[in-house]
Design a protein that fits this description.
InterPro entries (chains A, B): Bact_HTH_transcr_reg, Chorismate_lyase_/UTRA_dom_sf, His_ut_repres, Tscrpt_reg_HTH_GntR, UTRA, WH-like_DNA-bd_sf, WH_DNA-bd_sf
Protein name (chains A, B): Histidine utilization repressor
GO molecular function (chains A, B): DNA binding; DNA-binding transcription factor activity
Distance between the termini of chain A: 35 Å
Shape of chain A: elongated
CATH class of the largest domain in chain A: Alpha Beta
Oligomer: homodimer
Number of domains of chain A: 2
Order of helices and strands of chain A: HHEHHEEEHEHEEHEHEEE
CATH architecture of the largest domain in chain A: 3-Layer(aba) Sandwich
GO biological process, one term (chains A, B): L-histidine metabolic process
Pfam family, one (chains A, B): UTRA
CATH superfamily of the largest domain in chain A: Chorismate lyase-like
Structural class of chain A: alpha+beta
Number of strands of chain A: 11
Strand content of chain A: 35-45%
Largest sheet of chain A: 6 strands, antiparallel
Helix content of chain A: 25-40%
DNA sequence: CGGCACATTAAGTATATACATATTACCCAG
DNA sequence: CTGGGTAATATGTATATACTTAATGTGCCG
């Protein structure tokens, strides 16, 4: 431990390039360096911090990846104009969500059907050829109350193992996570009035406001599954957060 | 242009460390390297790619930041267990949203009031001391139709300039973007049935399902503004995407 | 046989160096 | 004054090197 480290205090045990990131981020967030402002050149910062250009470069590259600055050769680095607000939406599994509320979770399959893909199915899964699909509908309970109604389509061409699975006891969401570890997903979130089917499934009056989350999961370009989750509207909310520094960590 | 570059084809003009990121990402996404799998050591990868350890390190650091792998000294790097799905929700300004639909955008202020913060206001903005706030309600049109109803609170302690602004012609959202360039935000998304006020503002029958987005924007710990946007439910949907590679880019 | 010092290993950080690339600025010829 | 070629410049990428740090394993000695 050198003397300078002891003096530094709080910021100790942070790498230099991370400290540079933090300080620049602070200046941008505080408005000291407003959008459009040109930050010092790498060599200038290197001199200020008494380090090499490579170290500064590492910091600047990180800031550029998180979208706080834009870098132009020969011109320098500039604070970016805030465009669209983007926020990170954490979509946890329903079981965790329910247990997070302190309720006991229960799963109940309502129906399961295997069939040749209809034109509706093909639209939802972006299928060109006519393959087979499995459709599962299920209920997720929080305590005695229905929490969420699930309607799911699984593309059998992508997940042939789904033909053997009844989903009587396992929720298709967590089952699929075992089969297909990582994927890209596309979500649509909307509010709808409950139709008669949904109303009876959720035991609410027809016409009630419900939050609907539709997710389409793909892997390497082909769609695996499409799911529509219908929540009892007033009792459920999604939370999304935006913090510039963690952008990296989606 | 060397011969090898010409042969490479599609992947040309990608930096080596980015190519390494892509290939490893592919193996993880395809399931070839399942969660928990230990990837080759930096030195092994360096040899495979015929490059230095630094280059591999850059790639691995990026994968670690995006949350695809976890790195442990002396042990190696491991594919991470899939936790919660997180998706990036792009929340653009309403004007852009409307124009993206090919409709003409129009803004109309409904009311504006400056007052000492009530206890409700203080709860929404996390105010401890009793300061002043401005409350603005406004309508956003898409063509002839109301698209969205806005109810906004602005913390005057954080943005004193708001006292002088009437918001008769400028939407508070875009105005605030000028004043407070960068910030963190927290969103809640839910479905509600329109009460009488909302119903008359949006000219829909009371009880209709509406999508509500509530956003609380903070800077350096203090809350700037709270806004509730009420959309005509069935006509509007939010879209969120998850792609592992871009996690960095919020 | 148990515990602790020490060596080993893999990643983390930082540096100097080198060359590539994109873009701007400048200067000179027409 | 204008256009185009060229030099200067800031970032981008890659390398070899060196030292640090944390975790794991090993072996020695009481």
């Amino acid at each position: 431990m050198t003397v300078s480290q002891t003096i530094a205090g709080a910021n100790t045990e942070l790498s230099l390039h991370q400290r540079i990131v933090n300080e620049i981020e602070g200046r941008i967030l505080s408005g000291e360096w407003p959008p459009g402002h040109r930050l010092p050149f790498e060599l200038e910062l290197a001199e200020q911090y008494g380090c090499s250009r490579m170290t500064v470069n590492k910091a600047m590259a990180q800031l550029a990846r998180t979208g706080l600055i834009e870098r132009r050769k020969k011109s320098g680095s500039f604070v970016i104009q805030p465009h669209a607000q983007s926020a990170v939406l954490e979509i946890s599994e329903i079981k965790q969500e329910v247990e997070g509320l302190g309720k006991t979770y229960r799963y109940k399959r309502a129906s399961r059907e295997m069939r040749k893909a209809t034109s509706d199915d093909r639209a939802l899964l972006d299928l060109s050829a006519s393959g087979k699909v499995v459709e599962v509908t299920a209920l997720h309970y929080a305590g005695e109350r229905v929490f969420c109604f699930e309607e799911r389509l699984i593309n059998l061409a992508a997940v042939p193992e789904a033909a053997e699975e009844t989903f009587a006891d396992t929720a298709p969401g967590s089952w699929l996570l075992q089969q297909v570890p990582w994927s890209a997903a596309e979500h649509k979130i909307k509010a709808v009035a409950a139709d008669d089917d949904i109303a009876s499934a959720l035991s609410i009056p027809p016409g009630s406001a419900c939050l609907v989350v539709e997710r389409r999961t793909s892997m390497q370009g082909t769609f695996i599954t499409h799911v529509r989750l219908t929540y009892l509207g007033s009792s459920h909310e999604l939370v999304a957060r935006f913090t510039p520094s963690q952008t990296g960590q989606i």
